[in-house]
Design brief:
16 strands, 5-stranded parallel beta sheet, 7-stranded mixed beta sheet, UDP N-Acetylglucosamine Acyltransferase, domain 1
Length: 192
């Protein structure tokens, strides 16, 4: 019965394919789909996977609607709702391959966020006095982390749960704590 309901729901999702096909951000959406499919161990064509992720995941819909901003996106959001507590600032440049882990009460407000970004719930990436962070590629931000101000988070970095990041984070680092401090750099422990 559930698969029948899902099949019927996917029919209502068909207009999303038009948004996907006509989007200027189609390559980023493809990267999102690939990353989600890998994380969920799913196979299929991009259109089929897109419909599945739209059907099951309000946070995927939030990312999709962010990438396909239009009047049609707003209309489709009426019956295919995005995650209302997951916000992406309209001015944030968001690279492809975004993956979320239940991003409830998460705000992404950065100059830019690179490719293959992972974010969990209760995360705030925000500004101080109009100055926003810049996040590199392959960065993971875990539960409850806060990244604010005119700072850079380097490529391949991990921001630990509850970390408060107010200073630059070098590439290939793991940071934890309040205030955040580097505990690993280039795979090696750092003396604190």
């Amino acid at each position: 019965m559930r698969s029948l309901l899902l099949s019927v729901y996917k029919i209502f999702l068909l207009p999303h394919i038009l948004l996907y096909k006509r989007s200027n951000n189609k390559s980023d959406i493809d990267k999102d789909i690939d990353r989600w499919a890998l994380a969920k161990n799913m196979k299929g064509g991009n259109v089929s996977l897109l419909l599945t992720f739209l059907a099951y995941s309000p946070d995927f819909r939030s990312i999709f609607y962010f990438r396909t901003r239009s009047l049609l996106s707003h209309v489709l959001n009426i019956y295919c709702r995005k995650e209302k507590y997951f916000r992406i600032d309209i001015n944030t440049k968001l690279g492809g391959g975004v993956l979320t882990g239940h991003p409830y009460s998460t705000i992404l407000n950065a100059n830019s966020i690179g490719e293959n970004f992972y974010v969990n719930h209760l995360v705030t990436i925000g500004e101080i006095d109009g100055k926003k962070p810049t996040i590199g590629d392959n960065v993971s931000v875990n539960t409850g982390a806060i990244i604010i101000g005119d700072i850079n988070v380097g490529n391949n970095s991990i921001i630990g749960a509850g970390a408060v990041v107010v200073k630059d984070v070098p590439d290939n680092s793991v940071v934890v704590g309040n205030p955040a401090r580097v505990i690993k750099k280039d795979g090696k422990r750092v003396r604190v």
